[in-house]
Amino acid sequence: PTEAMIGTHAIIRSKFGSGRVICFSPHAETKNGPHSLIATGIYWAANQE
């Protein structure tokens, strides 16, 4: 739906304790999704940026 989450964040990242967490709202894993978002998020969460 095009009106499902208007005005909300698509991606949120934060440090949590001694680790990191990243949450994706859009489905970046879909066929036409931006796959680099997942890879970049994993590198960031692994502290490999």
Question: What is the structure about, briefly put?
Answer:
By secondary structure, the protein is an alpha+beta fold. The chain is 22% helix and 24% strand. It has one domain.
Would you mind describing this structure in some detail?
The chain is α+β, with helices and mostly antiparallel strands. The N and C termini lie far apart (33 Å). The longest helix has 11 residues, at 35-45. The protein has 1 helix and 2 strands. The chain has one domain (11-45).
> Percent range for helical residues?
10-25%
Strand order, largest beta sheet: 1-2
Decide which structural class fits the backbone: alpha+beta
Shape: flat
**Integer-rounded radius of gyration:** 12 Å
What is the N-to-C succession of helices and strands?
EEH
Strand content: 15-25%
Total individual domains: 1
Major β-sheet annotation: 2 strands, antiparallel
Question: In whole angstroms, how far apart are the ends?
Answer: 33 Å
Mean pLDDT: 81
Q: What brief labels describe this structure?
A:
single chain; 49 residues; alpha+beta; two-stranded antiparallel ribbon; 2 strands; flat
What's the layout of helices and strands?
Layout: E1 11-16, E2 19-24, H1 35-45
Antiparallel strand pairs: 1-2
